[in-house]
Amino acid sequence: MDVSWAARLSTLHLTHRERMVGATTIAAVIVFGGLLLDLPSVKRVKALEAERIALGGQVTGLQQDLDQLAGKRREVEEEAARFVAPPSDPRISALMRDITGIEGRQDVEFVAVRPAPSTGNTSAVTVEMNAPLRVLGPYWEALARSRWMLLVEDVRLARNPEKVPSVSVRFTVSTPFVVRGLVTAESGKPEAR
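Now predict its structure.
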């Protein structure tokens, strides 16, 4: 005798309340069983947590890198502001050529020669160079013998053992321009020879 399970249930003569409790129990078992099968495994949760922590560390590192880059950017912008040249003046160019070409010294390494802020009727040039200490005296002596009336100011010497030549020098040369044959800005006439 093969009677279906529905027919067997109807022969049990269950009360309405017993049927509701049974149906609720069966539904709860089905729903919670499905949820348990659908929940991520403990390993997956731990892997996701480890990945979240690693990504948090990377975000922190990237934020620090961005802060460092912002600092570098400010430094570069400040340095670039120093290199903004005033309007070109042939006298400044001539002075810069004379400063860098004194006696053709080959043991002097010029790092930078650029116009510096000047006041009044004078012009200035900032010079950064590397040279052996024994060469600096003769270099400045040759500079004093140049055709310019020069004033050397703000001299800074620093020992630089990693580089050859071994002394780094920074100084400013200023001069009231007295260049023969050039027209002065004030008079509009050529200067006397």
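The radius of gyration is 43 Å.
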